[in-house]
Structure formats: C-alpha cells, structure tokens
Amino acid sequence: MSQALDKPKQETRKIRVLVAKPGLDGHDRGVKVLARALSDAGMEVVYTGLHQTPSQIVGAAIQEDVDVIAISILSGAHMAIVPEVLRLLRENNAGDIAVLVGGIIPDEEAEELKKMGVYEVKGPGTPLSELVEIVKRAASARH
Amino acid sequence: MTQELEELVSLFRKGDTRALAKLITMCEESEDKARRIIDMLDVDTQRRAHIVGFAGAPGIGKSTLINRVIEEYRRRDLGVGVLAVDPTSPYTGGAVLGDRSRMNRHSVDPKVYIRSMGTRGQLGGLSRATRDAIRLLRAYGKDVIIVETTGTGQNEVDVARVSHTVVVVMMPNLGDTVQFIEAGPVEVADVFALNKADLVGADATMAELRSMVQLRFASNSWVPPIVKTIGTTGEGVKELVEWIEKHYKYLVETGELRQRERRAYLYEVVDLTKHRLSTLVDSEIGSDSHALEKIDFLDGSANPYKASDNFVKHLIERISGHTQQKL
Prior knowledge:
The structure holds two protein chains of two kinds. Helix content of chain A is 41%, strand content 17%. Chain A is an alpha/beta fold. Chain A has a single domain, classed as Cobalamin-binding domain (Rossmann fold), CATH 3.40.50. By secondary structure, chain B is of the alpha/beta class. The A-B interface holds A 1-2, 4-5, 7-14, 16, 35-36, 38-49, 52-53, 55-57, 59-60, 62-65, 92-94 and B 17-18, 21-22, 24-25, 28-32, 88-89, 92-98, 100-102, 104-105, 107-108, 113-116, 118, 120, 276, 279-280, 283, 318-321, 324.
C-alpha cells in the first residue's frame, strides 16, 4: 500500500473558551454577545449558564479542556470569586489555563487581579474585535 | 509528541480527568492522533458501559432532561460520562456549545464527566471524534455514557450506530401524526420520552404517539415505551431511567447487544474508510486551482461522469502504489 492514504492530515487546533457567569447577577447579555463574537472568530465556546460557583467553573474548564476562561461579573463580587477560581485552577494542576475577567471592575482592583495571575481585565465598551484578539493571544501564549 | 502522549495515557490510567480531557481534544484534532491514542490504549473491550443516545429536535429539552437523568444515575451510584454535541458553523468553523449550561451543576461531581463537542463538519448529529470519545470514557471506567445529538432533526440517525439504547425525546404539539410516521429519529427509537408533559396538549400527543408506536413497532420483539417527563422538575425521570435499563437487559438477554456492537463497529470501519478516501480526494486537489483544472481529464468535453471515472482511476493507481505522481 502506498503512502497515499497515510499522508499527514491537516491538523486543526481550535481555540476552546469557557464563558462563565459566576455569582448572583443575572445580566448575561454581555456574555452571550461575547460568546457569539468568539464563535464567529472560529472558536468553540462553552457556556456554563448563570450563577456558577468557582468550583463549577474550574470543574467545567478542566473537563472541557479549554485554553481560556472568560469570566463576566457585574455584581461586584470579583475580588471574592476570581482569586478562588485562580486558586482552584492551581490546586487542580490547571494553572496554565488563562483567565480573563470582564465587568465593572475598578482600576486598582483590576491591577490587583492581574498581579494575582489574571491575564487581562476589561470593562464595558471594549470593542469585540479587541476581546477576540485578547483571547487569541491568551490561547497562543499557552501552547 | 510521543512522550507527551505516553505521559497523558499513564495519567489517564490513574484516573486523571485532565488527561482524559486532553486525550479527547487530541482525538478531535486529527485522525492520526486519534489512531495513536487508540493504539496505545489497546481498546479494552472487556470493560462494559451502557451507551445511551438522546435524539430529538432543538429546544425540546434534551439537555435539561439529561441533567435529571445524570442525577438519577448518580442516585444509583453509577459513574456517568456525557458527550453533548452541538453544531459547528460551516461559515466560521466556530460554535457556541450551550448544552452544558443545563447540567453544569454536575461539574463538581468527580463521578460525572461532561464534554461539549462541535460537529466540525460532520452531518448526522455527531462529530467524527464522538466514537473515540466514547471509547475513552469507557476505558476511563464510566458505567453509563450519554450521547446527546445536535438536534438537527430528521436526518439524525447516526446516534443509533453508536448507542445501545436510543431515547427519542418528543414534546406536545410539535407536528402531527404525519410527522410521526415520516422517516427519521422515530425509526431508531428504543424508548420515547414525551418531555414537557405538563404542557397543554400532552394527552393528545401521548395518544398520537401511542397509535404510532402500535402501527410501527407492534410486530417487534421490543416495543418502545413512551414515558412522560418534565425535565425542569425531574418528574418521570426515574421511570425513564428504569426503561432505559430494562432495554439494556433486553439487549443482553436476547443477544442483540453483541449484534448491535458488531454493527456499530462495522459502520465505524465504513465511515472511517469513507472519510479517508474523501481526505485523499481533497489532498489530491489541494487548495491549488491548477490542480482542480487537471481533474477534468477530458480537456473540457464537459462530461462530469466520464471525468469522474478518470479521476477515480487515477486515485486507485495512487492507492495501489502504481503511481507516486500527484495530479
């Protein structure tokens, strides 16, 4: 048998993103728009639904083998939730998954989150194209 | 790559969830990787798992129902794997995989593994890597593997080729008796779930379903039961799972289980071969429009049948090694 059937196939490394909505606020318009934009950019976007706990988010991220977790928080609970997500990721040997945070985050707290290991923090009004680029960068920093 | 793979496989054998997830990703990425993984795992056919497919139209409540079915299986202390397939956009290659949002509360249960998959160009309601993922979940030790199809409708019968038991989910007021006798998922049903059974019209739909089942399945040795369910509250789910288990028992007792598995295996060989041949066709043409011109072996006499004959002849020569030359 010749090599004709055995030549290397094209490999498709698709970026996988978990879009998560932790805490008590129910404002999911933003994450839905983001999910759509990322999917339009050719990515696979897993949406967790509302009211997720940090351990649910980390569990889902590991099972889904995502490159990036994008967390949307509008309730003000980010300083409680995000560090816990980071901690659980490390604890589960998954600290290489990039975490992005979007929502209403004061500048100084955004800085603090980045120091803790969050890849990027963005607020309302950020163009979708910029968010897509950030996710791509975060994913490629990983491989 | 090989070393990375060996490490992953050894972690996988120790029950590491991340390794399982990464191996599924590799199976999705390319057939070559999938093959190497399956080689290394040496497909443990001794390990049994009940593979249950869920088909039915979009919005009918499959994911919400599965969320409850997982709960019921966990009550019986069984390990559950879920593969939830959603459509990939043929335009962008991207996908929003939303099934998980109905069942994500199980993410913290170490005995439950849920994985969302995009179809990635595959029709028929599943993705190419679904069967490899099933194999991995079985080797990982799951007792029940639930496969949720895209819900793209009447052509969705691939699920019957991978499952032991197919649950077709229906809901009240969705079409009439004519729909029920048309071809499609109804033909492959082992169990019917009439979901959203609290909606007005449920009794009428139930009656229609009953007469359809009588019409179609009466002479079969297994007549699919119809179970009323309400996914949001969990009503009827215990009964549904009991019927799913009864069906498995029926398969074992009648010896049909072996037959089904054999058939599933042979279909997989056929599909794999088709896929490889179609990849060969694509790779002969490449992305180069000059090569595309060359497949018209007849210099423009515009007879596609004859041109295709010649193209097939060329491909056979390539496969048999008579020519190394590409187009």
